[in-house]
């Protein structure tokens, strides 16, 4: 049974709270002053502390500040209306929630349910860590290289909060996979997770797709339309390719993030929306700011919690784990037991993987089809691969007579993308194809899996 410590100097409030908290399945201990609470905390480690903001010997927040962040129980402040502002400010420092006095029973129930959920999530995260140690995977994410462990640490910290997250990493490094993990480990997990590719929605549609529009707001707007922000209410919106969003919409997005309210196109009244935003970019957002394509204030706002995903070539040991995982998956689907030859393992370890995990997954799928029991991966270069040289013709090593034109095209598209830091618009320009074609090709590469 989880333990709650209730700290209040009013005896009547204290006994009423104790009763309510016990009804919600907690075992309750109590204290009337800060000093007494400190004494309790020295003896037991409660799961949650409900503390009055104003106590005879000080401010309830002091109790929170004194505790080691790593060992701190969840803290809920109780306060009179007069000091709601300071309670709200405390939320930013890690206090779980606050209750106004006299405490509303329904509110208390919700808050305590949140505590239980947070405790359950923490337990789950703990068991994910054990799994990582034993199996080299963190939930749906395969890999236990040191660089990925740092990513998991950040995921664990940010998942239970509502903080906006910015994921940056080359194409195919797993940004969407990480975004989904953050959603699943958070309190919004039972609500929808909606990925939107800001680069793939035509510029003239994206505003009403994201924010919705009122009936009659423009020619053809025959009906009220609810945008992604409204449709994903209480869930998580994954804004992929955020630097591709038109500048004027970036202003609008910033306003939603800052005010928590939304104005539909053609609307005249903003209303509250409850959405967590996770954004991603496969090019450096700082560089996009320098080029004038991305607003600095939006970057600043999104960058509350940045997570950088390492390219596969920097993830020591993970290539092997991922390769085994993908091959195992296909073997199970097909009822086969194909294996990699040792030359195939060497080739995979030496290759530079410009398309990262996605490219690895696709290559294995293709090699699986082409080989008998032993998988050779002989489409990969044999020698140690060198980092991509300057110029769009990078990776000539991987071009060999015998490759299909489709493979050569794929190599060139991925290498060009890599060269331009994932900037699809730039890559399309250089290759002389449309942005849409790039998107279609990339989609095909992942659909092949
Ligand atoms: N750590 C991982 N474990 C297992 N599968 C992974 C991992 N990382 C990526 N993948 C797989 O690799 C593919 C690409 O991942 P994802 O779509 O998340 O990349 P991305 O960074 O969003 O790429 P892009 O910038 O092109 O959108 C997906 O099929 C995904 O399931
Ligand atoms: Mg993606």
TrEMBL record:
GO biological process: phosphorelay signal transduction system; regulation of DNA-templated transcription
All residue ranges annotated as the Sigma-54 factor interaction domain in the record: 141-369
MF GO annotations: ATP binding; sequence-specific DNA binding
Stretches the record annotates as Disordered: 380-399
UniProt entry keywords in alphabetical sequence: ATP-binding, DNA-binding, Nucleotide-binding, Phosphoprotein, Transcription, Transcription regulation
Low complexity bias (residue ranges): 381-394
InterPro entries, sorted: AAA+_ATPase (IPR003593), AAA_lid_NorR (IPR058031), CheY-like_superfamily (IPR011006), Homeodomain-like_sf (IPR009057), HTH_Fis (IPR002197), P-loop_NTPase (IPR027417), Sig_transdc_resp-reg_receiver (IPR001789), Sigma_54_int (IPR002078)
Modification 4-aspartylphosphate, positions: 52
Protein name as it appears in the record: Sigma-54-dependent Fis family transcriptional regulator
Organism of derivation: Eiseniibacteriota bacterium
Lineage: Bacteria, Candidatus Eiseniibacteriota
